[in-house]
């Protein structure tokens, strides 16, 4: 019998390799929006988004604790996931930087929760915050869906650190 009580070997994971390997999981691109206590809109580009449950309807988004939007998402307790179309690469890049008025020149409206719904989104999912989970350097915000709509259109995709579009044959 082994006297090794350290358990199975845990391989050190290099952060760059982690990004590179996980980047091979192709995703869509969303902008997750909310408001601060003064009603000002906030949002960030996020692809760590997934549906969780149909009954009740739940979705999940993973947000970096260092993101400025992080605090607002936790305090407002509502958010809208805006799914971007293939023409919205500039919008994605705009919301992938902290600071400034990201919403300047970006048409949007309120629907169910008060989170901004972007006119250019090909689909949106409006949520009340249901649960918050610790996720290392990120926080997992699980939302209960209160309203949603798909306008349709071709999606913006993200794969291996670059934007992509569906090929014409799809
Ligand atoms: C394609 C793409 C996907 C991203 N996905 C996420 C994500 O899922 N979660 C996250 O916290 N940041 C993600 N980011 C980075 C944030 O958009 C970025 O940190 C942004 O500056 C945060 O804005 P804020 O500080 O104003 O909240 C992504 C960036 C890009 C370009």
Reconstruct the topology from this structure.
Layout (H helix, E strand, L loop, with lengths): L14 H8 L4 E2 L1 E6 L5 E6 L2 E5 L4 E7 L3 H9 L1 E6 L5 H6 L13 E3 L5 E3 L4 E13 L2 E13 L5 E4 L2 E4 L5
Antiparallel strand pairs: 1-11, 2-3, 2-6, 4-5, 5-10, 6-9, 7-8, 9-10, 11-12
Flavin mononucleotide binds next to β3, β5 and α2.
What report would you give on this structure?
- The protein is mostly beta strands and 170 residues long.
- It has a single domain (28-154), classed as Pnp Oxidase, Chain A (Roll), CATH 2.30.110.
- The chain has helices spanning 15-22, 68-76, 89-94; strands spanning 27-28, 30-35, 41-46, 49-53, 58-64, 78-83, 108-110, 116-118, 123-135, 138-150, 156-159, 162-165.
- It has a 7-stranded antiparallel β-sheet with strand order 3-2-6-9-10-5-4. The protein has a 3-stranded antiparallel β-sheet with strand order 1-11-12, with no helix packed on it.
- A hairpin with a 2-residue loop joins strand 9 (123-135) and strand 10 (138-150).
- The N and C termini lie far apart (57 Å).
- Bound molecules: flavin mononucleotide.
- Flavin mononucleotide is lined by residues 29, 44-48, 62-64, 67-69, 92, 96-98, 158.
